[in-house]
Design goal:
It contains eight helices and seven strands; from the N terminus they run βααβαβαβαβαβααβ. It is α/β, with parallel strands linked by helices. Strands 3-2-1-4-5-7-6 form a seven-stranded mixed beta sheet, sandwiched between helices. The longest helix has 18 residues.
């Protein structure tokens, strides 16, 4: 049976869909490819109104989740995502937070349960391409790592998809970007370590999403409650456009014939 070309992105929190895959999702939709976004948690450990941080007096986790899910729906509409699926697990918080010990946290949910739910979605939508995080979750967030684990487990369980990718930030561009950000006078509270990002030689796919920069930026702006943490929105216009114009990926497996280096994640499937 021939199935409709379908892309599925598996992300941990509301707002994760934008930076690494927002352009890909918008580009795919514009090409007539069905797009499915799976968001695993409700984002309870994000900032509350007025920038109140998790653990601080006045932080209302349930209200944060309600607000962030609303922002997620707005973002999905801006990126023209066809289907939004919410697994509804509780945000585990950053690595080392006390919330890591909450038995309800996504990172503590038995893998068989969460992977089983994702496998059901893969069986329903039959995506040829799935995108998620690498084994470190990009930067070590417990929920990103768990999203990686359930995506691989679900793919193995159901034999779907044909191709699976990890989002990537080329290491060669990290230092250049942060140096430019500082030169522009943008204040950031993150100093990337030398090994931050993906070694260039591991990157298999670079997708030009320059036609969708505006949609990607508006989707990021939709996550206004977390705006304090999104320093890219404080960069000058030309730097934002440069940063948002390409998205990189590492192909984890491929069950069809495709080139070693790709500009199209659906190469070999069209």
């Amino acid at each position: 049976m021939t199935h409709e070309l379908t892309l599925m992105a598996v992300h941990a929190h509301p707002d994760d869909e934008v930076l690494g895959t927002g352009g890909l999702l918008a580009r795919s939709a514009a090409e007539g490819i069905r797009t499915v976004l799976v968001t695993c948690t409700n984002g309870e450990q994000g900032d509350d109104s007025g920038g109140v941080k998790p653990g601080e007096p006045g932080h209302d986790a349930e209200e944060v989740a309600r607000r962030r899910l609303g922002e997620l729906r707005e973002s999905a509409a801006l990126l023209d995502i066809g289907h939004l699926e919410l697994l509804g697990y509780r945000d585990s918080g950053m690595d080392g937070w006390a919330t890591n010990d909450d038995p309800r946290a996504f990172a503590n949910v038995p893998l068989d349960e969460s992977a089983g739910r994702l496998a059901e979605l893969m069986e329903r939508y039959r995506p040829q391409v799935v995108v998620t995080y690498d084994e470190n979750g990009g930067y070590g967030h417990p929920d990103h790592i768990q999203a990686h684990r359930i995506a691989l487990a679900a793919a193995e369980r159901g034999g779907v998809p044909d191709k699976l990718y990890y989002t990537a930030i080329p290491r060669s561009g990290i230092k250049q970007m942060f140096d430019a950000v500082r030169e522009a006078g943008v204040e950031i509270d993150f100093d990337p370590p030398e090994d931050f990002g993906t070694p260039d030689e591991l990157i298999t796919s670079a997708v030009d999403v320059s036609a969708h920069v505006d949609a990607k930026r508006k989707a990021l702006e939709a996550h206004a409650s977390q705006g304090e943490n999104i320093f890219l929105l404080r960069m000058p216009e030309e730097m934002q456009r440069a940063a948002f114009s390409f998205e990189a990926f590492v192909r984890h497996f491929c069950r069809v014939e495709a080139p070693d280096k790709e500009e199209d994640l659906f190469a070999g499937l069209r």
